Structures are given as structure tokens and as C-alpha cells.
Write a sequence for this structure.
């Protein structure tokens, strides 16, 4: 039977006898991508803590906070029995409301996902900092699916000297290439097919990876051919800076894409060598 | 012989065998006020760590970063031999420059000291968060002299669930009432006399503590009578919120004052019951 903790105090008490801890922060609505993070965490420490918390601070006014799936019982069935689950109510993490101290992401936090979702990364970093202070793990495990999140968490850990190792697990995909996401359940049958354009556009970029221009042209061509997909951005960024690479750049890149399929906003990314 | 550590790695290694730690963050230029914090810290843990770091992030463009006194040898002579001193160069704490992740203070960070010193509290909280992550003390000791700093550090610790106890030591004063400050050394003989107006204005507020208006009138009258003192603000704030109290408020207050004496900006505060 999975142990579930709703208060910081009860979790802390339990962790006193838990040995080393690997931590997987989630917003619940778990899928095989999350379970890959949990398996990785289990390799890294004595005890795995999974947090399940839909963080209001990282949702904008017009976003899908209310719509975001919450299904704790189903989540618990998916998790191994020996995982410790931290599933606090909102006022356990924000007893003084949402004003006050924040962790802010700096310039990269206002690009790409941050352009479409103002304040998203500040809210994300703030709750990750809180959870790291509460759980105090040796290692925290994130999925590469959220590439900009991974970049900003790594940078927070370095910039603020947070005593934790960040471990990143490759994106888990369905057999046809669609990156797993809690939001995929919102896709209708046609939309589910159209959504494949994201991963195919990234594959097309890699196949045309002579230069940034070639790669982006290949992606855009594929995405524009897919009706029902409204592109937000496609770009090639330097993995070290998350800044777009120049036209003459050659070296490692992360190709990132965001698009709306029906009412559902999806993201994906793929890493390869350019030039 | 006091042990001095210039790198995070060397300090961390030493702390592995240090037992419990009480931490006193300072910008150096130590005086008896700092030494009171160190004595308090020694009561609270096995090992005392004092950081000496003039944090560029909390100084504005037009401020006295270059002028701020740096005198490590003199500081070391003042400290007990068994204190561990962390005195990193700037690039040990900011290897990637000063952009990137910040801890931000929220609304109270833009009032009073934050009005006169935009970004000051964000810079202060950022370095305090970094130092807490590096030193990982059981308790961190601050002086009440910097009342708004104390308020915001306490709130950061609560808002971000930082695992540390914040301990606050009363302001140490010269015999005539002047609050000790590293900046007092900039005062000329006449200015040193004029600077007494700050602590006297706060005492006058307490002596007229029937209402906010009476208390502030008493303070302003005293400060205005002192030529050479340019008042920045005088206010009575609620210790729980650091917001100005209303005219009909009765209860605990912190009276705060900031003024320029010659070219030197000084602050002071005093706590008492209003009404």
C-alpha cells in the first residue's frame, strides 16, 4: 500500500528513517513517462518520493488550471507500492496565499514557453525550490520532454547552489512517436493523428540538419501541411544557453516545438548535431 | 588561528565534521553588532560559520559598492579563533555573472529600503538563499538593525520552506544610542552628532505612542530640528506584515527610519506598543 502524505510535517517525520532520497516532482495524471522517472529514481537512492501537486502558481489566468486532470486514486495505482507520495492540498504549500517570495527565472524564463505562458517558469521554479527544501533529496529526476523546464531547473540549482543532483530521463513516446503528456487525453481521434506532426517536424529538422535554416524550413513545411495544428514556435537552441543558434552555428542543438492541436497545447523537443 | 575558506568545496569538506552549524552572514567591516551575532550563534550550535562577502547583487548602480569597506585581516582579528570564515571571491558565488535565477521579495521588497534601493532586497535574498544552500546551517542569525531585511528573510524561509531557523539579535548601540553600522565610519565628527537624531526620533515616537500620528509628528519634529539630516522615511509598520499601520491601530509596531547624514545613508528601528 503506497504511503501518502498530505502535510510537510508528516512527510518530514517519515523521511527521517528513509535513507537517501530520489525525488520525482509531478502534477499527477501520471503516465508511462512519469513511471520512467520513478524507475530511474529507484536506481539512484534508497527511497523514492513522488510529489503530486497541481501548482496554481505556474498556471496563467487564461490557462487550464481548472481543467488539468486530478485523479489521485488512479495515480496511486500506477505507482510502485514502496514509493512515498507527497500530495499536499494547496494551502499546505501556500498558507499565506500566492504573494510573497518567488524564485524568478531571468531572461530565458520569458522566451518560448515563457512567452506563451507569462510567469509560468517563475511559478514552476518557486514550487520546485519549495519541494526541494521540503523533501531534501540527493537527486531530483525530471523528464527531457519539458526541455526548457529542465534547462531552468538546472540553472536554478547552479545559480542558487541548491544541494541536489538533477537527473534527466529521455522523453517516453507512444509507438508512433507522440511524446507522452498528461494533456494528450484531451486529444480527439483526428487531433491525436494531427499531433504526430510535432515529433515528425523535429525528425524532419534532424534529417535536414545541415544548417539552422534548412532544419527550420523542413519543420515548418511539415507542420504547415498538417491542418488542425497551429504552430506557436519551432526553433533550434543551444543546449548550454537555451538561446537560438545562429545561421552558421554547428554543434549540438535542441530543436523545440510548441503547437496547439484543437484546444490542447503540446510541446516536444529533440536533440541532435547541427552542421 | 581562524580558518578561512574561499571556495564552496573547501568549506563543504570542512563542514562534514563540524556538527551542527549556526551561520552569521555578513558583508565584513565587522563591529560589535556583528560580534553579538557571533556570540549568539555560538550558543546555538557546535560550529559557527561567518560569511564575509560584499554582495554586488544587492547594490544599485549609484550605490556605495566600491566604497563599501573591505578589510578581511581586521575582520579576522575581531572574530573568535574557532569560527569558520567563508570569504569567497565574487566569481565563486557568481561564476555565470549576475544574470539568471533570482529570489525576489514581492511587494514588501519595493517599499522603504526597497524604494530607495531598487533591487536591493532581491539581491540580498538571492545571496542569502545561496549561502544557506552552501552552509546548510541549523540556524541563521541576523541583527534587528536591518528590520526589513529580517522581515523578508523570515518570509523567504517560510514561503520557500527553507529548512533553517532564523534567530534575531537586538541592535547593538554605542553608549549615546547610535546603532552600530559599518557605514558609521564614514561620518565626520559633526555628522556623528547629527546621526543621533535617528535613534532619538525613534525614542520620541515611543514616548508619544498614543497614536500613529502623534508618534510620527514627534519623530519628524525631532529630525527636522537637526540640520544635516535629510530624512528618507519615518514610519510605523505592523511587525507581522511590514505594512504601515492605520491611524487607529493599536498594538505592536516597529518604528523605522532612514536618513542621509552628509553622504552616508543610515537606518534604525525600534519596537514598541502603540495606543
Amino acid at each position: 500500500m503506497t504511503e501518502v502524505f498530505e502535510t510537510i510535517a508528516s512527510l518530514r517525520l517519515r523521511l527521517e528513517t528513509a535513507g537517501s532520497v530520489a525525488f520525482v516532482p509531478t502534477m499527477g495524471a501520471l503516465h508511462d513517462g512519469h513511471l520512467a522517472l520513478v524507475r530511474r529514481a529507484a536506481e539512484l537512492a534508497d527511497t523514492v518520493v513522488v510529489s503530486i501537486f497541481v501548482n496554481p502558481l505556474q498556471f496563467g489566468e487564461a490557462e487550464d488550471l481548472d481543467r488539468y486532470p486530478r485523479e489521485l486514486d488512479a495515480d496511486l495505482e500506477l505507482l510502485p507500492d514502496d514509493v512515498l507520495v507527497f500530495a499536499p492540498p494547496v494551502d499546505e504549500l501556500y498558507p499565506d496565499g500566492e504573494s510573497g517570495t518567488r524564485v524568478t527565472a531571468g531572461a530565458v524564463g520569458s522566451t518560448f514557453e515563457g512567452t506563451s505562458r507569462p510567469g509560468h517558469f517563475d511559478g514552476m521554479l518557486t514550487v520546485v525550490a519549495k519541494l526541494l527544501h521540503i523533501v531534501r533529496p540527493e537527486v531530483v529526476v525530471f523528464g527531457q520532454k519539458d526541455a526548457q523546464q529542465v534547462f531552468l531547473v538546472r540553472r536554478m540549482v547552479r545559480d542558487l547552489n541548491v544541494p541536489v543532483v538533477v537527473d534527466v530521463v529521455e522523453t517516453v513516446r507512444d509507438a508512433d512517436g507522440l511524446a507522452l503528456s498528461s494533456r494528450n487525453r484531451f486529444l480527439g481521434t483526428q487531433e491525436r493523428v494531427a499531433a504526430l506532426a510535432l515529433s515528425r517536424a523535429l525528425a524532419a529538422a534532424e534529417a535536414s540538419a545541415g544548417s539552422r535554416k534548412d532544419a527550420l524550413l523542413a519543420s515548418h513545411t511539415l507542420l504547415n501541411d498538417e491542418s488542425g495544428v497551429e504552430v506557436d514556435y519551432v526553433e533550434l537552441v543551444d543546449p548550454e544557453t537555451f538561446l537560438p543558434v545562429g545561421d552558421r552555428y554547428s554543434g549540438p542543438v535542441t530543436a523545440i516545438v510548441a503547437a496547439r492541436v484543437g484546444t490542447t497545447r503540446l510541446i516536444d523537443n529533440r536533440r541532435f548535431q547541427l552542421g
